[in-house]
UniProtKB/TrEMBL annotation:
Gene: proB
Pathway named in the protein's UniProt entry: Amino-acid biosynthesis; L-proline biosynthesis; L-glutamate 5-semialdehyde from L-glutamate: step 1/2
HAMAP family per the UniProt record, alphabetical: ProB (MF_00456)
Xref: Pfam families: AA_kinase (PF00696), PUA (PF01472)
Annotated ATP binding sites: K15, S170, D171, T212, G213, G214, M215, L216, T217, K218
Boundaries of every PUA domain copy: 278-340
Compartments reported by the entry: Cytoplasm
MF-aspect GO terms: ATP binding; glutamate 5-kinase activity; RNA binding
Catalytic reaction annotation: L-glutamate + ATP = L-glutamyl 5-phosphate + ADP
InterPro entries reported for this sequence: AceGlu_kinase-like_sf, Asp/Glu/Uridylate_kinase, G5K_ProB, Glu/AcGlu_kinase, Glu_5kinase, Glu_5kinase/COase_Synthase, Glutamate_5-kinase_CS, PUA
Protein family according to the UniProt entry: Belongs to the glutamate 5-kinase family.
Keyword Nucleotide-binding: yes
Protein name: Glutamate 5-kinase
Any GO BP annotation: L-proline biosynthetic process
Length: 369
C-alpha cells in the first residue's frame, strides 16, 4: 500500500461531506454529486474498488421537521434518521450498480471483534461488486460513542478496508499555509511528507456551516491514514476538474505521503482507532519497562488507576507526572487494579499488566513518551 500512483491503487476510500450532499442544509441535491459519481464509475471501470464515506443525513433530513434552526439532540437524531434514507437514495439514483448502507458508531470501531466484523462486511461487499456507503450512525450515537466527524471516520474505514488511497473532499483546493478565504497571498501545499505541529497550526476551524469537520479534522484523518501506508488527498469536491486530474494521475490538491514503514493492523487500530477507557499510573521503572519493550510491568510498579474499565478495554499507561507512555488492552478490570494499587505490600505476581495487554503482544508506544 506504500504507493502514490493512481495506476497502483486497487481500493479507494472517498469521503464526501454535508456541504456537497446538502449544500443548503435543506434536503439533498444531486447537482454537485455528478462529477463525483462519474469518478466512482470510472474507478470501477478501471477495476478499482471504491468505498464511499458520505456525511449529510442531518442536513438532508432537516427540511422534514418544523423549527429546525435550533434542534435539540433528539431532533437531530430524528433528522438523521429521516435524512439517511434520502441521502442513500440520492446516491443510488446516480449509479447503475448496487450499494450497501453501513452505519457505524465509535463503539463499533473500538471493539476489536466488531472492528474485524466491519472489515469483513466491507470486503465481502466489494468482492461482490457492491459499493459500501458508510456514515456515522447519528440516530443512536452518544457523546461516548461518537467519532464526531466523517473525516476521521473515513481514515478508520480506510485502515479497516486496507485501502491504497483516501480522498477527502473539501470546499477549497487543499491545505494552505494560511486561510485562503481571508488571506489573498495564501499558498497551497501540494505535497506534505510529514504532519508536524507546524502543519497542524496551518489548519483553522470548520469552514462549512453544514458540516462538523474542518481542516484540522482532515489533518487528523491524514495522520491516521498515512500511518497505515495510505496515500491521502485533500481536494476540492466542488470542482469537476478535480476528479479528471485524479484519473489522469495528477495531484489536484494536497497529497500526504504515506509512511515508508506502515504500522501493522492491530497496532494501528490500538493507536488510531480505539479510545482509552481509563488510565494505569505507573512509576518510572514501569515506564522504562514499557518503553524498552520488556513487557514485564508488575503490580509493584502500579501506582494508581483512573476511570472504570473492564478486561479487554483499552487503557493509557501514564507516569506519575502525567506523561502518556503507551496504550494497551487491560488484562484486568479497574476494580481489581485499584485494589492492587491500594495494597501496601502488593504481590508482584498478582498483576502482570503489560505482558499480556493485547493478544499479539503489541503495545502502542505514544509519541510524547
Amino acid at each position: 500500500m506504500n504507493t502514490n500512483s493512481w495506476n497502483d491503487w486497487n481500493r479507494i476510500v472517498l469521503k464526501v461531506g454535508s456541504a456537497l450532499i446538502a449544500p443548503s442544509g435543506n434536503g439533498c441535491s444531486a447537482h454537485q454529486l455528478f462529477p463525483i459519481a462519474q469518478f466512482i464509475i470510472e474507478c470501477r471501470k478501471q477495476g478499482k474498488q471504491v468505498v464511499l464515506v458520505s456525511s449529510g443525513s442531518v442536513a438532508a433530513g432537516r427540511h422534514v421537521f418544523s423549527n429546525p434552526d435550533n434542534p435539540s439532540l433528539a431532533l437531530k437524531k430524528a433528522m438523521a434518521a429521516a435524512g439517511q434514507s434520502e441521502m442513500v437514495s440520492t446516491w443510488d439514483r446516480l449509479f447503475d450498480f448496487h450499494t450497501a448502507q453501513i452505519l457505524l458508531t465509535h463503539g463499533d470501531l473500538r471493539d476489536q471483534e466488531r472492528y474485524h466484523s466491519i472489515r469483513d462486511t466491507i470486503m465481502t461487499s466489494l468482492e461482490h461488486g457492491v459499493m459500501p456507503i458508510v456514515n456515522e450512525n447519528d440516530t443512536v450515537t452518544t457523546d461516548g460513542l461518537k467519532v464526531g466527524d466523517n473525516d476521521n471516520l473515513s481514515a478508520m474505514v480506510a485502515a479497516a478496508a486496507g485501502a491504497d488511497a483516501l480522498i477527502m473532499c473539501s470546499d477549497i483546493n487543499g491545505l494552505y499555509n494560511k486561510n485562503p478565504k481571508i488571506h489573498e497571498d495564501a499558498e497551497l501545499l501540494s505535497v506534505v511528507s510529514e504532519i508536524t505541529e507546524n502543519i497542524k497550526e496551518m489548519a483553522g476551524g470548520a469552514i462549512s456551516s453544514t458540516g462538523t469537520g474542518g481542516m484540522l479534522t482532515k489533518l487528523q484523518a491524514a495522520e491516521k491514514a498515512t500511518a497505515h501506508g495510505i496515500t491521502t488527498y485533500i481536494v476540492n469536491g466542488f470542482e469537476a476538474e478535480t476528479f479528471s486530474k485524479l484519473v489522469r494521475g495528477e495531484n489536484p490538491g494536497t497529497v500526504f505521503t504515506p509512511y515508508k514503514n506502515p504500522m501493522q493492523d492491530d497496532l494501528h487500530w490500538l493507536t488510531h482507532t480505539t479510545r482509552a477507557q481509563g488510565e494505569i499510573i505507573v512509576d518510572q521503572s514501569g515506564a522504562v519497562c514499557v518503553l524498552d519493550d520488556e513487557k514485564t510491568l508488575s503490580s509493584d510498579q502500579l501506582v494508581d488507576v483512573k476511570g472504570n474499565f473492564n478486561i479487554g478495554d483499552t487503557v493509557l499507561v501514564k507516569t506519575e507526572n502525567g506523561n502518556r507512555v503507551a496504550k494497551g488492552v487491560a488484562n484486568y478490570s479497574s476494580c481489581l487494579m485499584s485494589y492492587i494499587s491500594d495494597q501496601h505490600e502488593p504481590n508482584e505476581t498478582a498483576f502482570p499488566t503489560i505482558e499480556s495487554l493485547i493478544e499479539d503482544k503489541n503495545i502502542a508506544v505514544l509519541k510524547e513518551a
